[in-house]
Amino acid sequence: MKFELDTLVVEEASRDSALAARLVAALGSSVPVSYVADAREAVRPTPGPDPFGAGKRRMVVLKRHTPFLMACPAGSAKFACCGYLVLVLASNCPMDCSYCFLQEHVANNPAFQIYSNYADSFEELDRLSRSAPGRHFRVGTGELADSLAMDSVTGLSKDLIEFVRDREHLTLELKTKTDEIGNLLQTDPRGRVIVSWTLSPEAVWKSSEHRTASPSARIAAARAVLDAGYRVGFHLDPIIAYEGAEKDYAHLIDELLDVITPGRISFLSMGSLRMTPGLRSAARRRFPHDPMLLGEEVPGHDGRLRAFSALRVRLYRIIQQRLARAGRPVPAYLCMETSTVHERVFGVAPANPATIGERLALG
Asked: Which of 2, 9, 57, 97 has its CA 20 to 30 A from that of 212?
């Protein structure tokens, strides 16, 4: 296991679950295990200088009592979005990116939670497919937790892939900043799984993406799963406007296309750094020396702070032009940007979310 844990807490209702047994066996004596009747107290912040950071090192296994499937929180009538659906199988992440929205979103329950009854989500997915015969859906697990960061001990990817690979109307997206692909290389996806990587230039990785794999390691991992029968996608999100960013993002695209030809990339999304005032305060408090958090920003329609639109559009265009010169076009779209910004970058109005989502699911 690449990430350290201080403790494993298992709720009694999950003691006999396959997931709890798998974790206890995988972690062995290296991580203390305790059992509690009610896990709600275990997921709350603990006293100390950094309750959110401490929560990342405390894994709590419990049942989820609300639906697993939801629309992507980034989706909104204000923005041109991609119709992405989210499967919530865990909450929080052992990595620690300075800009991460979870610092605000799960501040009141920061423990790394993982849901023992995750197989119940499969029925939700089947109901979704039955509700819209003929539609194709792209469903991902990387919104509230990295899809693969603890996969070597949870083994969730194997169960998910085995479920989705026989369902022609579903495409699973596993989103990650790791190179933890061991289980993927042992499982045949039958073309039903996209593995996507968030990519940042070296400067952003070094200053802001703590305990993540390097950009080159992520690209190498993408090439390995591509050769193993998976589809791959990439998220340049958040794109950060800093001195030297234009050159760095252009170099990142060149590095990517040197390893993976454009025709084999299922999609590439782009989104700028965006923070609520509360998130910016939390991020700057936890990472006071990160220069990536100190740019000048203005509030948008949704109350989030972003770089000036001219800066964002310039960076988007540089990346898009680099992709366009690669030969075969790479399907690209913007995340949490208005239709106006989309038109300034691509020259056309965005398609509706359902159309984009289905196109990305089908590849």
From this structure: 9
Q: Is the peptide bond before 238 cis (omega within 30 degrees of 0)?
A: yes
Collapse the DSSP code of 95 into the 3-class scheme (helix H, G, I; strand E, B; otherwise coil) and give the result.
Answer: coil
Residue 242: pLDDT above 50? Answer: yes
| Alpha-carbon distances, residue 222 vs 87, 185, 196, 259 (angstroms) | 22, 11, 8, 9
For 10-35, what is the mean pLDDT? 96
Looking at residue 119, what DSSP letter applies?
A: T
Radius of gyration of the chain (CA): 20
Q: How far apart are CA 177 and CA 142, in angstroms?
A: 10
Which whole-number Å values give the CA distances from 259 to 28, 45, 216, 239, 252, in the listed order?
38, 42, 10, 21, 11
Q: Distance between CA atoms of 361 and 354, rounded to whole angstroms?
A: 10
pTM, entire model:
0.93
Amino acid letter for position 15? R
**Token pair recorded at residue 309:** 């639109």
Per DSSP, the residues of 287-343 read -TT-GGG----EE-TTS-EE--HHHHHHHHHHHHHHHHTTSSPPPEEESS--HHHHH
Q: Measured in Å, how far apart are the chain's first and last C-alpha atoms? A: 33
Q: What is the token pair recorded at 62? A: 């419990």
- The dihedrals phi and psi of 107, each to the nearest 5 degrees, come to -60, -30
Give tens-digit pLDDT for 158-207: 999 999 999 999 999 999 999 999 999 999 999 999 999 999 999 999 99
